[in-house]
Amino acid sequence: MIKALQNIKLSTFEFLKRHFYDIDILRQANEHINQLCGIKTFFGNEHDFSLFQEMLKPSGAISEAEDRREYGDFQTPAMLSDSVCSLITGDDFSPEILIEPTFGKGSFIISALKTFPDLKHVYGTEIFEPYCWQTKFAILELFIENPELNKPSISLFCEDIFSFDFNKIGQYIDKKNVLVIGKSTMGYKCRVKFSGLPQSSDKK
Q1: Strand (E) positions, 9-152?
Q2: What is the mean predicted confidence (pLDDT) over 94-104?
Q3: Taking burial as the number of CB atoms within 10 A of a residue's CB, which of 22, 42, 110, 193 is the most buried?
Q4: What pTM value is reported for the model?
Q5: Hey, what domains does the chain have and what are their CATH numbers?
Q6: Looking at residue 7, what is its pLDDT?
Q7: Does pLDDT of 172 surpass 80?
Q8: CA distance 185 to 4
Q9: pLDDT at position 40, please?
């Protein structure tokens, strides 16, 4: 989380200090962030919320180090993810559900939020926790700067894609236009009837 906060713009950090400095209840903080950007359960526990509060203080300065090599460290450039989403839009496809299986720093999610006005739900998984935080704060910053954007419900899971139980989200996506996108899929669009895997698809 610390690195994620260090990477946001100063204007975003000042916004967070103004709006969250006096909030000391986890539930209220999560509800407020959900209203701002659609992310469900931004802070998963009291420890994460307390760390966030400490970082908002003038003396808040903590360092963290993580070895990313075992997770792989190729991150999709924003220009590429923007181009892929634009290409999908040009194909006259408007997804209602977005799934990003390994969202990293969130390039595809951010691009999709800017591109697809009919999105209702976004689901993403990422095993590397610092990237989860960077994505959360990037999404929050996007909506702070662009409050007029369509605001879907966003669920981000810090879990391994290979052990993630997709039945958690299967009940919400039946008979919806679903876009599965990411650096491993590069624009895989499908209409899903969920039983673990898509029954029909149209690969780009």
Answers
A1: 97-100, 121-125
A2: 92
A3: 42
A4: 0.84
A5: 2-56 (no CATH), 76-196 (3.40.50.150)
A6: 87
A7: no
A8: 26
A9: 96
